[in-house]
Structure formats: C-alpha cells, structure tokens
C-alpha cells in the first residue's frame, strides 16, 4: 500500500458558545484568529504551516466536529477515498472548505468524522507576523501557552482494538502500543500514528452508547520549560490544570491537561521518542508499568475519563458489556492508574 496519510492537520470541535471558546483560545492559549466564516472561528498556532489548525463550530455540546489529515499526495487522496468506499462507507467530497482544495469527509466505523485533503494553502506571515527565519510560517509568539502547532487527537471508541485495526488496515496507521487492564483482558487505550511520532491519534475505551466521542486534543510546545511555563501562566490566569505536568510512559511525552470554557479537554505536550520502524509490533502495557504516568507515583484523576459530548455510562446491571470493562468505566477501578484501582 502506498503511504496514504502524512499528518494531522486540523481539528474541528463544537462549542455552545463559539465566541467564548475563541476568546479563551486567543487569550489563555495564545492562538490567533485566522478567519471567521459561516459561524465558525478558524484559529492558528504561530508554527502551523497551514492557515489554521483549530476550527470552532457552533454546537449544543462540546464534541468532535471532524479530525483532518493531509494525505501524502494527490494520488493518496484518491486511493484513500477508494479504500473507504470499498468498506461500504459513504465518502462526501467537497471543494468549498476554507483554505483547502478538494477534500472529503466520512464517518468512520466508530462514529468519528474524518476529513482528508491534499491541496491546502500554506501560511506565510507578513508585516508584524513575519518571522526573520525562512522556515517559520510566522514569528514566534510568547503569548500565554503559545503552542507551536497542533500535535494529536485522542478519541473514544467502544472497541479500542477494533478501531485501531480498521484505521491501520484501511488507512495505514501504525499501531504503536496498547494498555490492557491487569485484572482482565480489556484494552483500554492505544496509540496509532501516520508518521514518526508515537501517535497522532489516540483511542480510549468508551463504555457509553454515544459514538464518535473525543477525549482531548493536544498542542505542541518546543521544550519542557515551555510546558512548565504554560502550566504557570494558565494557573496565574485562572485556568486549573486537570492533570500534570508529568510524563506519559507510552510515547514519553511531557504533558498537562486543562479545559476550555465548553469543558472540552486540551493537552499541551512536548518531548517523546521518534519511531521510524516500518514493521513495529505494538507492545502491551499494564497500568502498573506506568503507561500514563512514567513515574508511577500518582493516579490520573477520574475526571480524565470524561469524553465529549458528555454521555451516560452503562448502568451496573446493563448487559452486553464485559463486567471488568463496566467496573473500569464506572470508576471502581481507574483503568489508567498505575494502581489499577484508583
Ligand atoms: Fe494526548
């Protein structure tokens, strides 16, 4: 199979108050508005090579609108469309997306809308926005968190391995690692990638009956010092840190998590390994090995298991869900903590 996808390019989220969210991303995160169009606000990080990496669309609840990858070539776009259609999934082409050429969207087997494109406008800052360095699309921002670029998205699915297998088989994502509970053969997390990063797509187990949910998405900063300063600036300006700063075992990225005004979760990360191995075999991590917390010395807050839009988890008596999965999702044991029961 030819290499189909190159990298995560932008993400569209919904918010019940688009302007409140946009204001937060501008003032607290340090993104800049590129455009307002059709009720949506398009924002960019200073280091984004294309015009925008975050789109905020109106919606009743915080949710995933779409996650968009750039393909590796025009031919790869056509091939991806063919492969998705061959799975019996409808491919909806469009030629009117802001800053994009021909693109298409489809809803994957676990309910997540994905957008693929090849043609895209590159960003070149001018005037006050121009960098003195030729490779930079814009001069470095030091405002607020000031992330350099979008990094990854983590979604929720009812079958973690099923989703990873589909995106691997159909679109060529490499599966990098799994987290499996100690107590039962339940896969609660995986990371998959289209490039050398440990992941540009994460998948967490979702016990709800709502398909297509998102757990968080992440921006990149260059150094650990930048990340620690981001945590400091957020705290000083009234934004609590939900989890971190710390280091993930899987991927070895430094991380911190916080929420936007719609309650959507954002991660800032940096560091981590690069993996170029084309026939990598995913390793299985147990929670006691610290997949989520490298130092194995603190539990992830249960609030981190909340995905978007908010959904009811299965009741204690509901059929059709593995009892250990249900226990994990109901919070009787924290599937991500190093202690198992968090
Ligand atoms: Fe993440």
TrEMBL record:
**Protein name per UniProt:** Catechol 2,3-dioxygenase
Membership in a protein family: Belongs to the extradiol ring-cleavage dioxygenase family.
Could you give the subunit structure recorded for this chain?
Answer: Homotetramer.
Instruction: Please give the SUPFAM superfamilies that the UniProt record associates with this protein.
Output: Glyoxalase/Bleomycin resistance protein/Dihydroxybiphenyl dioxygenase (SSF54593)
Q: Which residues form the VOC domain?
A: 7-119, 149-271
Q: Which InterPro entries match?
A: Fosfomycin_Res_Enzymes, Glyas_Bleomycin-R_OHBP_Dase, Glyas_Fos-R_dOase_dom, VOC_core, XylE-like_N
Q: Name one GO molecular function term.
A: dioxygenase activity
What is the top-level taxon of the source organism?
Answer: Bacteria
